[in-house]
């Protein structure tokens, strides 16, 4: 929605959230909105997000309006940001929470004249951020990292306050779910296990396609009526095709690049279980409270874990992990290759039995 749709005259002051640029990070920032809504139930919350991430925020109950950024990725575009800030000024924001750590996103609420601008130091954003937070050492997990912005900054580095926090939460309507099942040809009367073989960050985070295929075969041996939905972006279509080639055509649906992100969210909301690398789809499934099997190699499962009632995080915790690299610096990717389908099945099987 365009920011000029609502004028500020005579309306309740609003809160602006400037979204992270990654889908998973946006999901893990959602508890911040729960805390802000609890503190100011009368205050509408708008989210400014890139088009690729905005579908996530449209499934968040606490969000009143989603505004899409018109900026090119990585570009400063100072003139365009100034024009956009002028439009935001008309909406009457009392405060803004700047979740990306870059200067270019901190510019927007500063140029818009929003009085209270909350965020982390990031790229030395003194002045632009006037309620400045500093991360703990070592860095805290992502949910507490964003949720801490709802409280006053702490001046002492260290463990900090780790009170019980709300879990990330997304919602999908029955109408959205029915629509995506109809469009994809999935049978709503039969169980669906979703698998997400992709990971936008890099190849090091990807469990091999052959492992996904072996695990899907174990699922089908247990319940032949199960439908296997393979999800991801167009970049993941090839990996999903490799998985699909090893499975009966009647039960596998390669939906990588076929469904929009909004449709993928709706589909995940009705799954019996989800198997995914450390990716945006993993965190979406977790926020929908689906049974989740999360596969970690080069990343730390404690930094961004799933929060579902039924969830398992698998990591071999090799000596070389977590390296946090896009591609394996040693060339073998043992952290994912040696995470066997048999080990994954030991965790997934009881989830399916409980579904």
TrEMBL record:
SUPFAM superfamilies assigned: UDP-Glycosyltransferase/glycogen phosphorylase (SSF53756)
Q: Which domain of life is it from?
A: Bacteria
**Could you name the Gene Ontology cellular component terms for this entry?**
cytosol
GO function terms (MF aspect): ADP-heptose-lipopolysaccharide heptosyltransferase activity
Question: Which terms are listed as keywords in the entry?
Answer: Glycosyltransferase, Transferase
GO terms in the biological process aspect are:
lipopolysaccharide core region biosynthetic process
Note the InterPro entries from the entry. Glyco_trans_9, LPS_LOS_Heptosyltrfase, RfaF
User: Which class of enzymes does this protein belong to?
Assistant: transferase
State the family it belongs to: Belongs to the glycosyltransferase 9 family.
Q: What is this protein called?
A: lipopolysaccharide heptosyltransferase II
């Amino acid at each position: 929605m365009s920011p000029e749709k609502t004028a500020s005259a005579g309306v309740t002051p609003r809160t602006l959230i400037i979204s992270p640029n990654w889908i998973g990070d946006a999901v893990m920032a959602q508890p911040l909105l729960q805390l802000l809504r609890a503190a100011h139930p009368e205050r509408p919350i708008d989210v400014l997000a890139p088009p690729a991430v905005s579908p996530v925020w449209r499934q968040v109950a606490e969000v009143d309006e989603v505004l899409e950024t018109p900026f090119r990725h990585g570009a400063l575009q100072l003139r365009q940001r100034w024009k956009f800030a002028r439009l935001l000024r008309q909406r009457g924001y009392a405060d803004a929470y700047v979740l990306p750590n870059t200067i270019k996103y901190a510019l927007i609420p500063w140029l818009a004249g929003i009085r209270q601008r909350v965020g982390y130091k990031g790229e030395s954003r003194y002045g632009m951020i006037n309620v400045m937070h500093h991360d703990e050492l070592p860095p805290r997990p992502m949910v507490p990292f964003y949720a801490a912005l709802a409280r006053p900054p702490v001046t002492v580095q260290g463990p900090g306050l780790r009170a019980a926090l709300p879990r990330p939460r997304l919602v999908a309507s029955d109408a959205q779910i029915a629509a995506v099942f109809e469009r994809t040809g999935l049978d709503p009367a039969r169980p669906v296990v979703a698998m997400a073989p992709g990971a936008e960050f890099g190849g090091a985070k990807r469990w091999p396609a052959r492992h996904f295929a072996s695990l899907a075969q174990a699922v089908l041996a247990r319940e032949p009526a199960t439908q296997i939905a393979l999800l991801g972006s167009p970049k993941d279509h090839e990996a999903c095709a490799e998985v699909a080639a090893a499975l009966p055509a009647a039960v596998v649906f390669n939906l990588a690049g076929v469904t929009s992100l909004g449709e993928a969210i709706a589909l995940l909301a009705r799954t019996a279980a989800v198997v995914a690398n450390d990716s945006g789809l993993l965190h979406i499934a977790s926020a929908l409270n689906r049974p989740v099997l999360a596969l970690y190699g080069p990343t730390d499962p404690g930094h961004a874990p799933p929060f579902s009632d039924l969830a398992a995080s698998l990591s071999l915790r090799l000596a070389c992990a977590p390296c946090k690299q896009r591609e394996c610096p040693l060339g073998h990717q043992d952290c994912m290759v040696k995470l066997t389908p048999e080990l994954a099945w030991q965790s997934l099987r009881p989830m399916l039995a409980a579904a």
